[in-house]
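Hi,

I'm pasting everything inline rather than attaching a file, because the server keeps stripping attachments. The sequence lines come first, and each chain or strand is labelled.
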Amino acid sequence: KQEVTQIPAALSVPEGENLVLNCSFTDSAIYNLQWFRQDPGKGLTSLLLIQSSQREQTSGRLNASLDKSSGRSTLYIAASQPGDSATYLCAVVDMEYGNKLVFGAGTILRVKS
Amino acid sequence: DVKVTQSSRYLVKRTGEKVFLECVQDMDHENMFWYRQDPGLGLRLIYFSYDVKMKEKGDIPEGYSVSREKKERFSLILESASTNQTSMYLCASSFGGVDTEAFFGQGTRLTVV
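And the predicted assembly:
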């Protein structure tokens, strides 16, 4: 059964720092990987979708990479801002589970001003 | 922009009540999902629908049922609400297939007293 792990569980950084969030998955047979942001008490906002054939995707200050063979993805946030403070979740759609997302537990990010 | 709208942000219901959570999407998506999110347990799939009147059980369907009479609307039903169903409920939708991006609603915080 697919398991998704996110490290670290929590991260606190000063404003302006570049940072990396990690996501690993146990079964490399995935269709895609998606990164989400969740603000406290709110729903999930889609940040980036990486198809299994892709290596990375970029949106503004965000860059997500995917190494399917090693079961890893990273979300790179450049020049962090206090407004980036949120929980970041990664999820995979794997070939055995069909078109349903399997989520990691998330990384709680705090960017201090 | 894709919009997934959940009918309520906050709900308080009594034990034993029948509870309806409604979700509507405006992008003609085939797939719709209901998740619940609890501290320490992450997001868990309750039910999934890939077409009108079609449904599949997720990881934790006990105590829940769903209805999808129209493509844009997916309802989650708590037949007899219990206190252990107090949670954040999240609806999502995506196009058919296994490699499409999922979009989430704003969440419904349900408290059963």
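Chain A has a mean pLDDT of 95.

If the labels don't parse on your end, tell me and I'll reformat.
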